[in-house]
UniProtKB/TrEMBL annotation:
It is found in: Cell membrane. It comes from Salvelinus namaycush (Lake trout). The keyword Membrane applies. The keyword Ribosomal protein does not apply. PROSITE patterns: CADHERIN_1 (PS00232), CADHERIN_2 (PS50268). Coiled coil: none annotated. Its main location: membrane. The chain crosses the membrane at residues 553-574. It holds the Pfam family Cadherin. This is Cadherin-22.
Length: 737
């Protein structure tokens, strides 16, 4: 079966060679659009389109055709495939799909400068005829811009585009198909072209002169005023800087640029003085920062104006000369009232009022300096000491005599010049150690000195041994000549058991003037060392080095030793005497410590028969509390004979006897040098006078005429044998003895 396609008609036909026109064959189609867009006549094989085809939507359709036996419906031939192509006609106009268009070009650009490119598209078939061939043209704005007919590139047509006159243009660009021939379709778009700025305009001051006024007392940095230059350009092309052109104005004033407003700010650079000059004319120039060299032929991109500043007069405080302060010098040993220096201040006003001086005492609280209120002469009011304070910084005030509100201050620095009034001293209490087997000439220590003075020519010190040690045979001093000295051994064979410490006096003298000196001591220890020279042990008994003693020194030494021996003997004698006196007193007081006499105890094991606290607290008698207690003392804590007295005479017991005895004992103890120098517990066994109970002493019992028989004591056992011997009837041998 073969297919037949007709591209310029709406109807097509398929046919098979076996079709003899008898109607026995049935034609069918399948595929894209079969039965909807395309239908086929079963008898003839004619294919018809049921609707208008649009090539821009679909340019071809793929179908399959079959020829079947009408009776059996069997395929007579194999299925064949065919394509129906839709032929194009010019039915689509060109369209600008990327519009609206916005472009830009710099002002004053040359003719033919490229601006931008526009593109139109045509949906027709570009391979069939001229339906899709598009050409461009300008409908509106062709005086200033042109468009390339084939490419759509827009270019400038003039060279005098000025943004300051017109900053944008609206163009209408048309695109026509069929290569612009008659009958072609067309479309258009609007193109906006913005004219960008270039720096083609210089800055301009609206005025040629500006006037300001300023007080002469205005501080440095005070703004005087603002001026501004205008620029027809925009953006960074308007950025400008300002400067002062004349030399005089540049000394007194400074100009800066406000980055936000592009204004020139004129400020005071140096204090104004009405008396010196009352009017200042300052030339201020404005200059573009970004100059385009392409437009240099247009002229200078700068402009100038005059700023006139009038100075107003005010009453000013005195001015010191020099204004930055004064430095004075005075010798450390200057006498009271000595002139240190003079400060000067002057009233700068036309009246030239007199000035009075004073010192701000907060800067000179010790009143070391005084100042003459009229002349400004500074004198010394106190003794100076450079080592305490090398500089004194004071503030001097100057006021107008007729207007004390006009006051000014000036700093005065006074340097104290050094005088040699401090002797040099050893830097530290030096100590050195040597081995017993030290060799002669061995350096054992280096010493240096300190001096509170600071001579202008520097320090120079001289070292020697003190006169009492110059002839010693043990050590020598070596002056190194660089303000240090070394100590060397003069002999060998030191013995620390004979002498283990040497005190070497060293005399140090400075260079003056006047030359001052001091003596310091170097302590040298003799130590035991191991074979490598490492110190093992040292003793600390000191012997001052002295090769010889004068007779007077020997006599004084012997007298001191004799006095010490006498003092030691006196102290020992006094101690022995007081010790004997103390022992005799102790023997007198050897008695039983019993205060309560009329109680019979229960023997040695009875500890409840009487109150032991009474024996331990002899000072704590209830009479001390009688003044504050209405019920009187507690009689239960006192011996019965005292209770009886208190109950018999109204509770008023007399303890003066005991108080006197205790006071006497206290005084004896305080005066006894043999007792410890701190509080101690003393027990006094004093019974008092007129005791109602008889004495229990066995000594007095022997002398009585009592007829009581004590022979029963012999039956009490070994413990009472001694007592029974005292009370047994007398024997002849005892009487004889």
């Amino acid at each position: 079966m073969k297919s037949q396609l007709d591209f310029d008609c709406l109807d097509c036909q398929i046919h098979t060679d076996s079709d003899e026109g008898e109607g026995n064959i049935k034609y069918t189609i399948s595929g894209e659009g079969a039965g909807t867009i395309f239908i086929i006549d079963e008898l003839t094989g004619d294919i018809h389109a049921t609707e208008r085809l649009d090539r821009e939507e679909q340019s071809y359709y793929t179908l399959r055709a079959q020829a079947r036996d009408r009776l059996t419906n069997h395929l007579l031939e194999s299925e064949s495939e065919f394509v129906i192509k839709v032929q194009d006609i010019n039915d689509s106009e060109p369209k600008f799909l990327e519009g609206p268009y916005i472009g830009s070009v710099g002002e004053l650009s040359q003719i033919g400068t490229s601006v931008m490119k526009v593109t139109a598209s045509d949906a027709d078939d570009p391979t069939y005829g001229s339906s899709a061939r598009v050409v461009y043209s300008v409908l509106d704005g062709e005086r200033f811009f042109t468009v390339d007919r084939q490419t759509g590139l827009i270019r400038t047509a003039v060279a005098d585009l000025d943004r300051e006159k017109q900053d944008r243009y609206e163009l209408v660009v048309k695109a026509t198909d069929m290569a612009g021939q008659m009958g072609g379709l067309s479309g258009s778009t609007t193109v906006t072209i913005v004219i960008t700025d270039v720096n083609d305009n210089p800055p301009r001051f609206p005025q040629k002169m500006y006037q300001f006024s300023m007080s002469e007392g205005a501080a440095v940095g005070t703004p005087v005023g603002r001026v501004i230059a205008t620029d027809a350009d925009m953006g960074e092309n308007t950025d400008m800087s300002y400067l002062i052109k004349d030399e005089e104005g540049g000394e007194l004033f400074k100009v800066t640029t406000d980055s936000d407003t592009q204004e020139a700010i004129i400020t005071i650079k140096k204090a104004l003085d009405f008396e010196s000059k009352r009017t200042h004319n300052v030339v201020v120039e404005a200059v573009n920062k970004h100059v385009d060299p392409r437009f240099s032929e247009l002229g200078s991109f700068r402009d100038q104006t005059i700023v006139r500043v009038s100075v107003n007069d005010i009453d000013e405080p005195p001015v010191f000369h020099p204004a930055e302060g004064t430095i004075l010098e005075v010798q450390e040993d200057a006498r009271l009232g000595a002139l240190v220096g003079t400060v000067t201040a002057k009233d700068p006003d036309m009246e030239n009022a007199p000035v009075r001086y004073s010192i701000d005492r907060s800067t000179d609280q010790e009143q070391i300096f005084h100042i003459d209120p009229v002349s400004g002469a500074i004198t010394l009011g106190n003794i100076l000491d450079r080592e305490t304070a090398g500089w004194h910084n004071i503030t001097v005030m100057a006021v107008e005599a007729d207007n004390v509100s006009q006051i000014s201050h000036s700093s005065v620095s006074i340097r104290i010049l050094d005088v040699n009034d401090n002797p040099p001293e050893l830097a530290t209490p030096y100590e050195a150690s040597i081995c017993e087997d030290a060799k002669p000439g061995q350096l054992i220590h280096s010493i240096s000195v300190v001096d509170r003075d600071e001579p202008q020519l520097g320090h120079r010190y001289y070292f020697t041994l003190a006169p009492e040690a110059t002839n010693n045979r043990h050590f020598t001093l070596w002056d190194v000549k660089d303000n240090t000295a070394g100590i060397r051994t003069q002999r060998s064979g030191f013995n620390r058991h004979e002498q283990n410490v040497y005190l070497l006096p060293i005399l140090v003298v400075d260079s003056g003037p006047p030359a001052l000196s001091s003596t310091g001591t170097l302590t040298i220890h003799v130590c035991g060392c191991d074979p490598e020279g490492t110190i093992q042990s040292c003793n600390a008994t000191a012997y001052a080095i002295s090769t010889s003693l004068s007779p007077g020194a020997l006599i004084a030494l012997l007298v001191c030793m004799l006095i010490l021996i006498v003092l030691v003997l006196l102290i020992l004698t006094l101690k022995r005497h007081r010790k004997g006196q103390s022992m005799s007193e102790d023997e007198e007081d050897m008695r039983d410590n019993v205060i309560k006499y009329n109680d019979e105890g229960g023997g040695e094991q009875d500890t409840q028969a009487y109150d032991m606290s009474t024996l331990r607290n002899l000072f704590d008698f209830p009479e001390a509390k009688s003044g504050s207690s209405e019920s009187g003392p507690d009689l239960r804590t006192l011996p019965q004979w005292i209770q009886g007295r208190m109950s018999g005479d109204g509770g008023a017991a007399d303890f003066s006897l005991f108080k006197g005895y205790i006071r006497k004992k206290v005084e004896q103890t305080d005066g006894d040098l043999s007792v410890p120098p701190y509080d101690s517990f003393q027990t006094y066994a004093f019974e008092g006078n007129s005791s109602p109970a008889l004495s229990l002493s066995s000594i007095h019992t022997l002398s009585t005429t009592s007829e009581q028989d004590f022979s029963y004591l012999s039956d009490w056992g070994p413990r009472f044998r001694q007592l029974a011997g005292y009370y047994a009837p007398g024997h002849p041998e005892e009487d004889g003895s």
